[in-house]
Amino acid sequence: MKQPSEYRLPRLSRLRAFEGVRVAGAMSGAANRLHLTQPAITRAIRALERDLRVTLFKRAAGGSFLTAEGALFGRRAGRFFAQLNAAVAHALGAGADRDDVARLTRKVSDGHIHTLLAIAKAGNFRRAAQALRIAEPTLHRAARALERLLGVSLYRMQAGGIGLSPAGAELARRFAVAGIEIKAGLDELASQRGAAATTMTIGILVLAPKRLLSSATEKVLESHQKARLTLREASYQELVHELRNGSIDVIVGALRAPPPFGDLQEEPLFEDPYCVVCRRHHPLARVKRPRRADLRAYDWIFPTASLPRRAVLDDLIDKWRLSGRVQIETDSLGAVTSMLAVSDRLSLLPRGYVFGEDRSTQLKILDVPVPHVRRMVGLTTRRDWLPTALHAAFVDRLRDVSQVHGAAAASK
Prior knowledge:
The protein is of the alpha/beta class and 412 residues long. It has helices spanning 12-24, 27-34, 38-52, 68-92, 98-107, 110-122, 125-132, 136-150, 166-193, 210-223, 236-244, 308-320, 333-341, 351-356, 389-411, and strands at residues 57-60, 63-66, 155-158, 161-164, 199-204, 228-233, 250-254, 264-271, 274-279, 301-303, 328-330, 347-350, 363-365, 376-382.
């Protein structure tokens, strides 16, 4: 079965042989551990070394010892198998026996993983088979084989055909995150050879400080000239989904404190409070300290109901007895800026959005403190994330520019 492009990893049999030798310290020990012959282990290791274009072990009378490249890749391989084991354990449930989990994990094949990930991406069996360019009955057999192996219902009928059950979707997510470890290991080996670009995908929330991101990105590319950074802007819900399945590496933007899932963690970088905003030549822009009563004469540009700003604005309108007439509702920041420029309406925006992107020539922040839960901008990552050198460099640079930004904002 052809591997989908997002899962072009070395064969599991070769990775298992490598992990066996890494843990046992010898080909013979790995052979006993995996119930294979020593020549079979040797062939698998040599094939993996050809795949990776590195030497993973130094062979000596006392055993097989990791090279520097082997140790680098071994860290990722160990995490990959730990995540694969945890994925199977979660699918089996809290009472699963550890030996059963280990036995079943060893039986998970490349085909099982490719099939489940293809179904997760395509949405159902029919589209997954088309994506893999195989007959649907072929995909069906591989999918059901994994289901029988684990004894867990992984699929269910949906409107468009057979898709994943909640258990199947969670198993696919965990398989995908496990695969990220090997991809990171391949990136690290390529980077060490200077042979290929290392990659990072950054999720950006709409109100994230774009100028700070640009500064951090340029600083990273100065020291990682072969790096390739992909910036993806989307809603929080979309980005969290992609972060949890390994499609992106980090989210930059307002924190939820706490994040909605226990496998995520947040790092605050600086405070970015909401402010009442109007056009630069608005009648209220000439008032040094507008009173709450001064705001009552003006209508608002409302955020859509799904955005955190909407709840804050609704609360202000209720408590300050402001105009609650909803004539314009949008989640487009460009639309908000344009509408403010041609009207006397007010809106609620983060301070960093106004000052960080040089919009202070168009917009004016009114000196009216907005009571709301402290709003922090920062990083959201997977809790067990192990960054590559490129990832770590980006995070460090973003911390640096955020510290400067936070100090500057506090002085205003």
